[in-house]
């Protein structure tokens, strides 16, 4: 069964770059019907989609974060990654990685990783 | 970009009661892209309903989804103790995923 696991630093200072990796197991990151995305949730708040990537490297972003975010995929390692530049306290959140499908397999997120808390503080 | 509004913000009910949650879109959306999730404290969201009305594998049939256009609902026919949680709707359109602010279902 497909499983995703986030990894990366849990504490950053303002202006630094957030770097997270999601490792996919139990399935192929190169599946033709799957996309891989990042969703975040500030403490006590709702969910915000950040970006998604296809195994070919095709990407799409939330317009509100596109100027600071970069998502990439490494099929040889079954991993995809997120970089978010110039972080502020507003970027403090639980960051989830998740799979979603295409038009045919469905634009819904399932499964999700457990999430990793990233705190931005000086 | 479509904006989703969920109501009520909090729904206080007792086990065994029926819960009806609303998700309204700022413009018409395709049913195939309307999704519902359940999230419990300390856990990742869990897929409940996709395509507005299709239950995800393993989801009990007390959960049902409906609606079209701009107005969608999630109904829990009889609340079980494990159903008290936050519920989010989500839509996809114009290459953007948008989540609603959530409805918290808590114990009355």
* Rg estimate of chain A, integer Å: 14 Å
Low-confidence stretches of chain A at least 5 residues in length (pLDDT < 50)?
Answer: none
The succession of helices and strands of chain A, N to C, reads EEEEEEEEEEE
Number of helices of chain A: 0
Low-pLDDT stretches of chain B are none
Number of strands of chain A: 11
Mean pLDDT, all residues of chain B: 97
Largest sheet of chain B, in brief, is: 7 strands, mixed
Q: In what range is the share of β-strand residues of chain B?
A: over 45%
Give the helix level of chain B as a range of percent: under 10%
Structure summary, number of beta strands of chain B: 10
Helix content of chain A: under 10%
* Number of distinct helices of chain B: 0
| N-to-C SSE string of chain B, H for helix and E for strand | EEEEEEEEEE
Draw up the topology in text.
The complex is a heterodimer of chains A (122) and B (108).
Chain A: E1 3-7, E2 11-12, E3 18-25, E4 34-41, E5 48-54, E6 59-61, E7 69-74, E8 79-84, E9 93-101, E10 109-112, E11 116-120
Parallel strand pairs in A: 2-11
Antiparallel strand pairs in A: 1-3, 3-8, 4-5, 4-9, 5-6, 7-8, 9-10, 9-11
Chain B: E1 4-7, E2 10-13, E3 19-29, E4 34-39, E5 46-50, E6 54-55, E7 63-76, E8 86-93, E9 96-99, E10 103-107
Parallel strand pairs in B: 2-10
Antiparallel strand pairs in B: 1-3, 3-7, 4-5, 4-8, 5-6, 8-9, 8-10
């Amino acid at each position: 069964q497909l499983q995703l696991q986030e990894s990366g630093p849990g504490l950053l200072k303002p202006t630094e770059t957030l770097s997270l990796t999601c490792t996919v197991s139990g399935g192929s990151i190169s599946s033709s019907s799957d996309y891989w995305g990042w969703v975040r949730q500030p403490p006590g708040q709702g969910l915000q989609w950040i970006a998604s990537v296809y195994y070919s490297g095709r990407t799409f972003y939330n317009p509100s974060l596109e100027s600071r975010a970069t998502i990439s995929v490494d099929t040889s390692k079954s991993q995809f990654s997120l970089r978010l530049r110039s972080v502020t306290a507003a970027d403090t959140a639980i960051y989830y990685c998740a799979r979603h499908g295409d038009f045919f397999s469905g634009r819904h997120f399932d499964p999700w990783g457990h999430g990793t808390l990233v705190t931005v503080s000086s | 970009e479509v904006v989703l509004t969920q109501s009520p913000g909090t729904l206080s009910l007792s086990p065994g009661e029926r819960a009806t949650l609303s998700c309204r879109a700022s413009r018409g959306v395709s049913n195939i892209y309307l999704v519902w999730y359940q999230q419990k404290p300390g856990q990742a969201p869990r897929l409940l309903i996709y395509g507005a009305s299709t239950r995800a594998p393993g989801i009990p049939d007390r959960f049902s989804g409906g609606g079209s256009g701009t107005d969608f609902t999630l109904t829990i026919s009889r609340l079980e103790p494990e159903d008290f949680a936050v519920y989010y709707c989500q839509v996809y359109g114009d290459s953007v995923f948008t989540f609603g602010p959530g409805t918290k279902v808590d114990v009355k």
